[in-house]
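Q: what does this look like with iron/sulfur cluster bound?
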Amino acid sequence: MTRHRTDRILTTMGITLWERRAEPSPCGFQEATSGWQRLMHDVAQCTRCPLHKGRTQTVFGVGPQGAAWCFVGEAPGAEEDRQGQPFVGRAGGLLGAMLRALSLSREEVFIANVLKCRPPANRDPEPLEVESCLPFLSEQLAYVGPRVIVALGRFAAQSLLATDEPLSRLRGRVHDYHGMPLVVTYHPAYLLRRPADKAAAWADLKRAREALAS
Ligand code: SF4
């Protein structure tokens, strides 16, 4: 993703880009830290909402900048909070299987959640928490600039699309997220409980693949 395109996407999102600069070096030069590093630092230090009090660590997300695919879930669970990685455990295993079905590896896609800190007892995110944390995800997506975004589950879909439409109405079509195609499917944790819906999820993923190719 070029810096110009990142800036343009951030501007359409209403996000003002700024970069913290390092202390002057002994020889008088100042070196800019990258926006991505600054974002990682800001997430790690964040106390914008009360969830920071109960976290073991923030879960920033994993994957390369410039990934063609971005998968976005809801929030870290207990294992994610422990490991600092999104989608580990059984739901992560199923996401891995979904990626393999698309001939993708986990290493080549970007994976993140709407919330970077675990809600207590894995309860649903609250509106204030989503409002506080969503700008981080927006910036991540602007930096990565994927060719398609897959929203995993109702919370990710409703948060990214700023809607309260039910999942049933959000699935089945390609949405526009600041110029990037976005497809909605079920969260892997849901599919573990309702394996009968895996066929519908596969149809969603094929829709995402078509959107990426078009
Ligand atoms: S959930 Fe997001 S906004 Fe809340 S403390 Fe964690 S990083 Fe900050």
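Residues 43, 46-49, 51-52, 58, 115-117, 129, 132-133 surround iron/sulfur cluster (CB under 6 Å). The two ends are 18 Å apart (CA to CA).
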